[in-house]
Amino acid sequence: MRGGGGKVAARAKSPSPPPAPTTIPTTSWAPADRSVPEIIGSLQEDYYNLCMEKSRKINSFVWHLLQEVDEEIEKGLEGITLNIPGNSRLMPVERITGEDLWILSRILKKNPYINGLDVRYNLMSDVGAYYAARLLQKQHKLIYLNLMFNDIGPEGGELIAKALHKNTTLKYLRMTGNKIENKGGMFFAAMLQINSSLEKLDLGDCDLGMQSVIAFATVLTQNQTIKGINLNRPILYGEQEESTVHLGHMLKENHCLVALHMCKHNMKNCGIKQLCDALYLNRSLRYLDVSCNKITRDGMVCLADVLKSNTTLEVIDLSFNRIEDVGAKYLSETLASHNRSLKALSVVNNNIKGEGLVALSQSMKTNHILSNVYIWGNKFDEATCVVCFVLFSFFFTEGFFWGLLYNIRHLQVALEMIVTYWGTWVAQWVKRLTLDFSSGHDLSLLSWSPVSGSALPEWSLLGILSLPLSFPCSLAWSLSQK
Fold it and tell me: CA-CA distance, 287 to 278, in Å (whole number)?
């Protein structure tokens, strides 16, 4: 291997490993007498034997997780994801390194039951990227790999991107938070010209440069397999919004992309206009994330106009912009009278006051497709609370009683807030609410969308109530953390 890859390979093999313990370490799941517990499955046994053979210290966290996977395999389960999150709060964590991934790759490369590996928030570095690349070359059942926040640099990004040239199985790769920079981004863009199996690529917070963002936009005009891409927070200089020009052109040509994340692109009204002009022609995009930009009410004129004719967009994240009351009213007018495809809208922290929030609430009375609106972080007043109360009453008359049979706690919270904290007290509570207005629609088609940094939760975690078809309307409440 030449160039940076050869250096990484040398670094991966050069350290002399410490002597392996003769017994496993004492942990909350290990016997107090430090004896080796009964090995119940092949993964755990292979891990132990390989650590002994290579004189590697046994990672007690990995040991415990492999035991759980072995139990799932014994039950006959397939398509298992091995989760080794370095930020887990459920049990004591011993973060794994690149050398630990070397051991794991040896035991996973021929295992037919594992098709996903999640090693987020660990200490992989470029050494771990080298072994992850080798795993992608040898494990032909892996469809999901999560390497987010592992201190992988440009050289490590190059190794993984080149490994995907010949890989035909991986569907979803998350590299979020690894500073592969513009150099690594260019290798991934080049990979998309060759790879025809990858469907979801998350490169948010990777310090991509303008050159690599333009390269992705160019490649995606031809790539017909990528369904979702996250290009959040690139390092862009200048005020000309070149990224939106190129990505807008891509949306005119690409008819396969379903989710596009452009958080923190320094986008202004001119940039959102470029995207809206493309959305008149695009008939595939369903999830658009333009949160944390500099979009104001003038940009909402373009977005509201395109929503009158666009019938594919289902989720729009406008969080942490500044559309204010006027922008909210532009959107609410379109949502009330024209658009019947949008299912979720986030206007979190947009300096919207009572007038704009009331307009959005009024649009939901006539638009029953719009099932989720996220409004916290704005400026609530008593008028907003009154409209919310009327809206709640509307949902009560449409069969919310039947939702009571599914979750009585939600009704208790609603009644307590409406009766006890009326007026300004309700306003204080509403600031800490996330409202999910469910209309019985199936949102599972968007559950896979990468949303790192987004104010919207994962769709698979929304917890929308499932009601009988004869009573399709429901109201789900969930108090967010203070």
Answer: 14
